[in-house]
Design brief:
three-stranded antiparallel beta sheet, GMP Synthetase, Chain A, domain 3, Ribosomal Protein S8, Chain: A, domain 1, 2 domains, elongated, alpha+beta, 198 residues
């Protein structure tokens, strides 16, 4: 990118979206010279190796995006449970997180598509930028703990505000760990968690 100007949050999001569109266009127009893979050898690849490969593909894709957007960021890859996890940490990457993580969610989906294009398999890869998801997880676990206490005290169901699938999963896991039951109700994007007494 050329010179820096004062931007409103919306113009920064628009600029980031334009950069993402550019990367997607170049990715979709490029031909894939890599071999499709050996089916016999694919069965022998362990699940961890597959997830590590997903992380490497995602990191390559995201590194190219950062280069095009002229943003500095370090990439960290890991395997958490049954999914690859990639984190981008940098000085100021708030434009890649967006309001309420909207840009982060979009980047995660684009990254999953890049992995799918290379592997032919749907990815459950989790992307975090500047610790946004880690911070949000901590907040949600605290919210779940407080909600569980309210439900146990009152014996009544408690409905929470609408959340993303990631956020609902964190709450469901925390509620289950506390010994109560939770359900998701509603329709996207207004789907929410209800915590019910045991």
């Amino acid at each position: 990118m050329s010179e820096q100007t004062d931007q409103t949050p919306d113009s920064a999001v628009d600029e980031t979206q334009a950069t993402i569109d550019s990367v997607v266009a170049s990715e979709s127009s490029a031909t894939n010279d890599a071999p499709a893979g050996d089916d016999a050898g694919a069965g022998q690849t362990s699940r961890v190796e597959q997830l590590e490969n997903e992380g490497e593909i995602a990191a390559d894709y995201l590194e190219e995006l950062l280069d095009i957007a002229d943003l500095d960021g370090d990439l960290d890859m890991d395997v958490e449970g049954d999914r690859a996890a990639v984190s981008i940490v940098g000085a100021d990457l708030s434009q890649l997180v967006g309001r309420d993580g909207e840009v982060l969610e979009a980047l995660q989906e684009l990254t999953r598509l890049a992995v799918y294009r290379e592997t032919g398999e749907r990815s459950r890869l989790m992307l975090d930028i500047s610790g946004h998801r880690a911070d949000r997880r901590t907040q949600l676990e605290k919210l779940a703990e407080e909600t569980v206490a309210r439900v146990k005290e009152s014996g009544e169901r408690v409905s929470l505000d609408p959340m993303s699938p990631f956020e609902r999963k964190v709450v469901h896991d925390a509620v289950a760990a506390a010994g109560l039951i939770s359900e998701s109700e509603g329709v996207e994007p207004r789907r929410y968690v209800v915590v019910v007494p045991a």
